[in-house]
Every structure is written in C-alpha cells, then in structure tokens.
Here is the input.
Amino acid sequence: MFKRTKVTDGTATGQGPDAENWDGKEVGFRKKSKVPGVMITQYIEKLPEGKSHPDFTRKPIALTIQEGKFAFFKAIVTGDPKPTVVWSRNNGDVSDPARYQSKYDPNSNEHTFEMPHVKPDQADTYKCFAKNEYGQAMVTVVLNVIEVGFKMTKAPQQQAEVANCNFKKVLKRRSKVVPKAEEPEKKEGEIDPKFWELLMSADKKDYERICAEFGVTDFRWMLKKLNEMKREREEEQAEFVKNLSDLKPIHINADGTASFELEFDLLDPSSSIYLYKDGEMIPYTKELGDKMKHCLRKVGRKYIFSMRDLMPEDAGFYQLDVEDVNMFSTDFKMVDFLVKIQEVKAMEREDAVFECVISAPLSKLMWFGKNMPLEQGDKYDIEVSEDKLIHRLVVKDCMVVDKGIYAACAGIKSCNAWLVVEADKGAPKGKKSARKTTRAGGSGTDLQKVAQEQQQKLDKEREERKEKIKAAREAAAEAAAAEEPEKTADSGAGKDKGAAVEVERIDKTSVAATTTVAGDSGSGHSAGKASGGAKQDGSHADAGGGHSAGKASGGARKDGSIADAGGGHSAGKASGGAKQDGSHADAGGGHSAGKASGGAKQDGSPADAGGGHSAGKASGGAKQDGSHADAGGGHSAGKASGGAKQDGSHADAGGGHSAGKASGGAKQDGSHADAGGGHSAGKASGGAKQDGSHADAGGGHSAGKASGGAKQDGSHADAGGGHSAGKASGGAKQDGSPADAGGGHSAGKASGGAKQDGSLADAGGEPGITSGLSDILATRGQPAELTVKMNTDCDGAWFKDGEPLKSGGGISITKDANIHKLTIHSCRDTDSGLLRFVSGDLSTEGRITVGDVPEFDEDDLHKFSKPVIVRVGQNAAFKMPFQPQESLTVSWFKDGTELKDGGGVKIVREPNHSRLLLRDCLRSDTGEIKIQLKNPFGAVEATSQLIVLDRPGPPEGPVETVETTSSVIEIKWNPPKDDGGSAVTNYIIERQERGHSLWTKLGDVSAEKTSFRDRNVTHGKKYSYRIYAENPQGLSDSLETADSIMAGIMILSGPPGKPKVVSTSKTCINLTWTPPEDDKGVPIIGYQVEKRKKDTNQWLALNAINEPIEDVNYAVKDVTEGAEYEFRVSAINESGAGDASPPSAMACAKNPNMRPCFKDPEDFLVVRAGNSVRVKISYEAEPPPHITWLKDDEPIAPWINVINTEGMSQLVIPSSKRSDSAIYTIKAKNSVGEAFFDVEVRVTDEPKCPGPVELEQTVYGKVAVSWVPSPDQELDDRLYYVVSQHDSNTRMWKTVADRLFANTYTAHNILPGIEYHFRVYAKNDMGLSDPSQSPTWGANSNRVPISSNGVSSMEISFERPPSILVPLKVHTPPKGYQLYMTCAVRGCPTPNVSWYLNNTCINSDKNYYITNSCGVCSMYILRVRENDGGEYRVVAVNSLGKAECSTKLTVRD
Here is the structure.
C-alpha cells in the first residue's frame, strides 16, 4: 500500500559521527519520527522482532545566550539496541574537551552537550546523531551568542577575513537603532530614528501623540515620508514573512510582567528571530521562562514576547527582527507617582475617592482592591483626566466589607492606602441607612496644579525639540541658498543663447567719493525685498526691489552716507559692501538664487559687482588703490554695470538681456553716466552725482526698477521707466528742486520726489503712476472704491481677471483729470478677483476679496443670550453655532478675560459651531460669558450670563432680643450678605430649651420679615434660637443666639410624687401620683403627664400646659399594644409647668389574661434511631401557663427532658430508640383556659433487607416474585418494598415496582431465552435496605409443565424449514455513522445463518459484528465506509430447507 523510497544518507562528509569510516554510499530507508525535525534513516527494510531504530523523544532546543554564560543542549533518545549519541557542528570540530563536554545521565536517560563560558566563535548549527546497527537519527539545533564589549583583536580579524573573502563573519547582525553607547552625537534638531520605527508599527490614531513627543509638526511631510518607508519595509518583510497583523504594543499585565504580541507566518520555518533593546540584542528562551528574564513564546500564528521581574532599567525601545528585517517596534516607558493615593476614612453608604498624579501621560492604571483587580462597573468608577496625568478610583456606596488596602499600579511603580469604613451609628436599628451623596477622601493637595506643572514641563521639553528642528531646517535652507563662498575676484561676461557681449569701455580708474554721495539700491523683482541704507546726516537712501523672494539691502555707513544694494533675484541676496570712509559701495543683482556683492575698498572708491548668470554669482573685485573693479554684463539673468569715472567721462554698460541688469556709473565731476536698457526683469538705475549733474537710467523692462539718484545740491536725477510691476521713483532733494521719475511701464510705479518748500515735484516727460492699486478686502453688500493717480492727464482701461470692465451692472468707472476710479456699488462674491488698470505701457494691479464679517443667526443669538443657570459642582455648557468660514478665529471670554483650554475649561472648535464647558462650577464663576468670531473682514461677539446657584450665606448677626415676657419672646436679625444667586424665600427658626439636647422647629417667616415672635414659651425657662436662610438651592448655615433668652420671671412648683401604674391593657395604662410636697406658695392649677417609649430619648407630652389634668390620676390611651412605656408628671401653676417627677416603672400595654395558643407548630417528626429528638413548640398565654407533655396519653418517662422558657416549651430525648416512636401531646393551661397539640414522632432506621426471593411461572410470559418479609415490617408501619429487574439483553437494572406493601409481585413480558434477575429492597422514611437477590430465571426446571392432554410427546414433531419472520430494511446512513441491520429467522432445527455483501460472505470479516440471538439476526457496523455500500443478503439453511432476504445499503456523504 505504501511505496518506500530508497535514499542515501544526506549527511555531508565530515559532519556525521565516525566520518572517516563512512564512505557515504550506505543505503537506507527514510522513516518518519513522531518528533518534528528529526530525520531517521533505517538500514534494513524489515526490523527483527523486538528491535528498533534510534529516535528522539526529546530533541535539543535552539538557544540564544550571552557571551560567557553556560550553554547546553539536552536530548533523550530511544532504540534497541541502545544507540550511541555523537555531537558535531557545521563549521568546526567539537574535540576540545575544555570547550565541549558530552555527558549522559542513566537515571533520566538524558544526553547533555555542554559549553562552559561560551564564546562568539561557538555560534553555529549543531547536530546530534543517534546510531545503532539498524539505523540512525539526526537532529539539528542553532546556537546564537550575543557578544559583550569591544574586542581589541576584532578589527584586525575582520580585515583579515575581508581579505580572505570571508564576508559571512564580517557581516555582523545589528539593529537599525544604534545602541546608546555607540550613538553618535546628534546634530541640532535631528530626528531620532526611533521616531520612524515607532510610526511604522503604530496605529494611525497614535501618530499625533508620537509626533508631539518627538517635536515633529510638519504632518504632510511626515506622512509622505512614512508611506515611502512603509512600502520599502513591506517589500523587505515579504521576503521572510506573510500575513503580518495584530500588532499590540508593549503593556504591563496584572501578574507584573510586560509583553507585546504580533502575528505572522514564516515563509521559512528555520528563519531566525532576534530581539533588541535600544539597538542591542538580548537573549531569550522559548521554554525556560522561569530561569531567564526574557521569553518568546509561539501560540499558533501569534508570537508573544514577555519580560518578568521588571526593573526601571527595563524601560527602552524594543524591536523584533526576522533575519535582518524589522517586524515590530515598541517603546516601553516607566512612569512614577508625583502624588500618591492617601488613606481614606468614609462613613457607611458614602463614596470614597483615591487620587494620584503620575509623571507621564498614561491612558489607564491598574487598580487593585484587597489584592483583586478592579474594573469600571456599578461598584467602581475609574476616572482619568484629559491630560492623562490625574487618575481617580471611586468606591461607590461604601460598606463595612469594603474596607481594606487599595493600590494603584503603573508598571513596576505602585502605591497603596487603606480604606477605613465606619459604621453609621445613627442608622435605625435593623434597617439600612440612607445612601449619602457626599464623597470622602482625596489626596488633600491641589492635583490640578501639580498636573498643570507637570504638563507645562512636558510641553516645554516638546517645544524645545520643535525649536531645535526648526532651527536645523532654517540653517539647512540658508546653507543651500549659499552654494559658494563669497568671492572678491572680477566676474566675466555671461552668454545668452550663444551671443557674447564684451564690455570694453569700463574705466578702471578709482573714483574719489565724499560723505555726501547719495546711495541708490537696485530694484527687486517678483516679491523681493529692497531696503535703503540708513544714514546719520539725513541724506536719501533708496532700496530696490527683491526678485522672487530675494533680498537686496543697502549697507550701513558710519558717516551717514548711503550704501546701495542691487536687486536680489529668485531667492538670491545682494548686498552693498560697508565702507569706513562713507564712500559708495554698489552691489549688483543676484539672479536665480545667486548672490552678487560689491567688494569693499579701503580708500573709499566704489566697488561694483557685475551680474550673476543663471544661478551663478558675480562680484566686483576689491582694490586697495581705489580703482574700479568692474564686472561684465550678465546674460540670462546676468547683470551689466557701467563703470565709475573720476573725470566725469562716460562709462556705459552693455544691455543685460533676459533678466539682466544695467546700471549707469557714478561720476565725481557730474558728467553723464548712461546705462543701457535692461530687458526682461532687468534693472536700470541712474548714477549718483556729487555736483548735481544728470544721471540717467535706461528703462528696465519686465519687472525691472528704475530709480533716480539722490542729489545733495538739488540737481535733477531721472529714473527710467520700470516695466511689468516694476517701480520707478524720483529722488528726494534737500533744496526743493524737482526730482523727476521716469515712467514705469506695465504696472510699474513712478512718483515725483517730495520737496521741503512745497513746490511741485514734476515727473519726467513720460506718463507715470503716482498712486497704484493694492490688495483690499470688501464687505459683501457694501460699496468698494479703487483709485489710480497718474502724473499726467491720460486715459486708461480697467480689467478684471484679464477681461475688460465697463460701467454698468453695479460698477462705475470715472475719470477726474489724472485720477481714475472704479466703484463697486454693492460687492458680491463674483466681484472678487484681480483688478488691473492699464494706461499705455503702464499698469498697476490689485486683488479685491469680497467676504462677510462673521455673523450669528438671530435665533441662535437669542438662544445663546439666555443665562445658563447651574448649581455649585455642576458643569456649565455653552454652544454657539455659526456658518463655516475660512480664516475664522473663535475666542471665549469670561468677564473680559480670554479662556484657554485646560484645567476645568474645555473648548471644542468644530467647523460649524464651538462649545465651552466649565467643569465643577463654583459660586465665584458667576459672570459674563462672551464668544468672539473674528476673520479678516471684522469681528462679531455674543454674550451670555453664567449664574451659579448655591445655598445662601448665613443670616447676618448678632441676634437681637426685641421683647421677652412670660408668654412671648421676640427676636430680630439681618439678611445674609450672599443670597446664593437666587432670592431668599424664607427664614426657618429653631428653638432649644435649656437643659435639653433636642432642637425643635418653630416655623418659618417670609424673606421680607427678619423678626419672629415665639408665643409658645414657659415663664421662667431659658431658650436658645437659631435661624436659617432658605432659597431654592437649600438651607444656609445657621445663625445662633450667643446666650439663652429667659421668658419673663417665673415661680415654678416642685415635682409631684413618682407615678404608679394601676393597671394595664393593650389599649390603656392607668396612672396615679401624689401632689408635690412644695408648691412654692403658688396654687397648683393641674398636672402635665409625659411618656417615653422604651429605647428612645424623647419625652412626649400627653396634654398641653393650657389643658392641665386636674386630678391625680390619668388613663393613658395613646399606647401601642405590646410596647413598654414609662411616665412622669409635672405640676402646673400660673407660671407654667414645674420640674418633672421621677419616671415611673416600665409598663407594657398588653392584656393581663390570655388563653394559651400555639404558634405554627409541626405535627410530624422523623428521627434516625440513636439521634436526639427535639420537639419545639411556641405559644402565647397570659398569665404564663402550666406545660405538661404526654406520650400516647400517658405521662412521659423520667429520662425525657422538658425545657420551658418564656413563650416556648421543648421536649428532648437524648438518645432515641425505636420504642420512642409515639404521639406526644403538649398541654398548656392557665387561669383563662387550656390548649392541646399532638406531635407524631417516628424514630426509625434504615430497614433490614427482605428474606429469600422465590420465582415461579404460572402463566406463559409472567413470573411471580415472592419474598420473606423484612424483620422491620412489624415495627414500622410505613415500610414498603421496591422491586428491580435485570435481563441479559439490556444488562441494566431498572425499577419495575415501587411502594409495595405486599410480599409478592408478578413480572410481565418474560421472554424465553433471556436470563432474568430480580432484587427486592425494603424502604422507609430513612432510606433503602440492602437488596435480596433472586435466583436466575431462564432454566427449564423453573417452567410450569404443559399438559399434553393425553397425547404422547413422541408423536409430535416441531421440525420445520427456515422462514423469514422480519425481513431486512433499506438503510441510507451518512458516512462515518454507526449502523444496525436486523431480521428475524425461524426454523427447527435451528438454521445456520450467513450474511453476504455483494455475494461475498462477511461472517468472518472483522469490520462487521454479527450476532444471532433466538432467531434475531443482527449485523452492526461501527463506522460506515464508502465500500460498505451495496446489496446485503441473509441466508438461513437447515436440513429441511433454505430461506433468504436482501436489502440495499446506500452510504451518504
């Protein structure tokens, strides 16, 4: 059935045991071991009986261990004959006994391979061979050794291995996170590699927390880079694992261990798994968890890393790698308790609170109560603050059983405290006290303050990390901008599209400059920045525009003269050099991130810098002799500058094309310096002159700037027109002469210079824009006006987003001389856009943005304006809806002070609404609440009121006594200072009589009245009063009188005699007493009677003082049946009631005579013989009755005890016997009557078994069962019998008769050929007796002989051929189910029955269990198989014939 494949041993030469004696050609048969990973080779095909090949019952386990530790492998092998065990390794030998030791323990049958003081070079794959003459078994195991420390010989050894191309040993496994000891010094703001490792293993909901922890604020950049890293990591992981999922970060378990989990499937089961902590590999075990600190277990697909015996040094960054690829990273942090929980003393039914503050945010603490973990539920509330620093445990509805030690655990740190629960002594006896609404406990310190300080500390550390990162990025950006160090050499001419322009007319003679030379700075293009230099003498400094975020700045001078800077292009920077003598230093424009700078000279002559080419840098050289260092014209974003001359001759600069710059040179004698036109974002500037002669600048086109030079003597400085958003400005003069500016084209700007004498500053001959457009904000529905002023009267056109505009449709375009206006009468959203005014070649533009001032819905505003009224301790919530808008700032204020999120204030900002939540409001929080919505168009505010309601303050004292007489006391007080937020409704007055502890409420008065007259006073007695103020929130604290107040002057009588109880009943108690011996000379009017119920302290007057009892006896009818009372009497005269008499004796309100009656007695009792009998009867009778017990109407025996107590009589028989069974009668008799009650007591035991059992058959199919009665039948009239039956067919005992009081039973359905047994039990109230066993029924001798009616039996023949009484049935059982198949066959002599399946006899097949019992033929299949289906046939054969029947069996799937 199984095909065996012959294979040769796969062990490589030199690896197995006795390798020198093996030729590698021995043939064997591969066998499978029960232990996975064991390879077995059997040398012969069939083993002799009792012999076996070697096998492992326990194989060695892979081990990762630290260098210098004791390493060992253990194995247990089996086999007959006993195999020989040999150890080897793949790369090296194990012959050194100092490093390798093989041992064998005959007691445990363990083979041990030990390596003391293991070294890194012993890390290898080891093999264990077990061999005998019939085969061998082999298993492999891996040893990993973690190196410790630095080895001096390590580096030379690795170099040697590289030289020998042994790269396997050189490549050492390391984590991507560098250990702290080897971690290089971080640059300022550098991101920790742990950040990316944590993000790749974290859930998305934790991204924000991790970024905040590491100070990363650029989420867009983070997500982009994280996705790239994840794709790379997933590709690496796919080489070793699949289905990586269910990553659970490290957490601390209830048993004190820490663990993390993940699930994955290894593509190669032999792949190695490594664990790292802070970049260093750590040893772990898979089974010996009790001996090593770290353990890695595998449960199905899940890998669980656990760590026990936690210590503070265990905190760190943990990683799990498969081979060289990281699978999971997690950070394990330790926190400490800043504020620990304190002992709490709580009253019963009160809540207890434990509070603590931890050093770092933690979402959940482990809480324990009496060594049991606690969870959120009906009994416990676990609360955590929003900053996750404050943690609370609330034990609700404390009971005495809740007292004990409670603990809070955060990792390995914990704190504990006692909960002491005091019983409520004021609770009613036998009843549960009411639930209290107060809380006990707390830390006793300001937890919120401690948490805020800790949060500020954490935020400060986080902000410092952010600042470091920000500073590092800025430094990196500046370093990238400055690609080359500054040069002082001359720069050559640039080329644009193959055309070279030579600058040959530059005079290199030095120019002597004075301290009054004007400083002009070059123009800046495309959002650049230009700044003029600062002067001390007030002369003019002009700054050019910066190009494309560039910056141009004029240098500062000590003598006040101007330092000019050229235009900086495309993030470039151009700066004029600083001079000590105040002479002019001009810098060229830096283009396309380039930098151009004028060199500094020591003699004061100007140093001009040429143009920078296409992100290049051009700089004029510095000279010591004052001569001019010129730079050639720059093409393609270059700069060309005219040279400066000392004699006034002309220095021309070639035109700089394609964003070039051309500048006119500066002259000392006033001669003209012309600059060529700079096109396409170029710059043309007029030179500065000392004698006032004209310096002209050519027109700069396409975002260029032309500026007129500044003069000291008032001569004219003209600037050319700047085109395409450029700027042209006329210079300022000190003498009032005009400074003319040329026309600026294409949205450029030209302005006339300002004069000190008020005369007009004329512009040049060409038109110019003196006041252009700028960006404005317009309110929707309101008018907006845009104005452009020209220097001349000229026409112009308006455009919006490139489309021409005309008057109409809500827009008016007007012109008044040189002023052009565009008016939008009612601004709409469609009016937003870029507006442009064009006049000839000049243009200016500005953007108009239409929007709305934030506004509130009137209904929402009305709803918000309603005051919010809360009680003290409750939360106050405000919500204000608004329309979603961009650039909307929402602020909340309380009494003018802005509220910030944190502490008891929670502010939620949603796109369409904002909510304010004030927690645990105090009375002092009452005030104005305001919300402000602000955007660039304006702000809107809405106000509401917060009213915190509380109990009022106590009324203002002192209490004044207005009047006191023998019948009235009047007092007065002042209203409370604080009404608690709601008006006082009334005052409540209570009174206490001196000498009493009870305060009695007298009534209340309205809030308008602050006085009270007490008319229910007794002359001469003193009273204390206390007053409460009440509002809807409750009662205030009380204001109490300082001293007691006496009611008039009184003369009271002495005490009467002690009252005596004359008679009692359940409805009345009659009293009598004697008058007082001393009446103080004042006639007695009558008496006052008071009563006090037993176990109470309150005396209740039975009659009022103004209704005195005139006689010295009284019938008290206000009593409760069965209750006990005592009474006292006071004598009343005109001054009132005097001192009370001594109290009477306790009197019970009950009838004196009562006929005896019994309460719920039991009338039947069963007791086992030998046990004591106790019959308890409770009764009621007055007077106490005489108790008598009788047994069967006869006096009881002297050894029977009778115990009588109040209301109960008990009959006790110490050791009962059967003879004690009887009817006992209790008789209770007193003067009123008597009562009887009978109790039947039955003393019995388990009955003895019945006598012998006899069986007799009188009728076919019935058997009479009879037995001798049990000896206890005569003693126990409740005894009966139980009959059980057993037959050989079912083989089970079953009860066939119960509660038989006779000694016979007839069994029915007795079949021939089956053996029957019967058992008879005796049973009473105590249980069953042992059974009496019957003889076996089924022998012929037990049958009743059948009469033959005179016919000889020899003449009758019972022989007959076989016949089928019950045929086979069709069966369709499912596969794997059991099956019974039966039929009935008759015949004489008994036929031989054979079973056939598909015409094949199956009588001898062990898969079928076939029986034949008295003609009933059965076939049983334990589990049906597919091949069991088919046609089944039963054949019965005897000497007289044959009979058969058949059926089909269909097996279902």
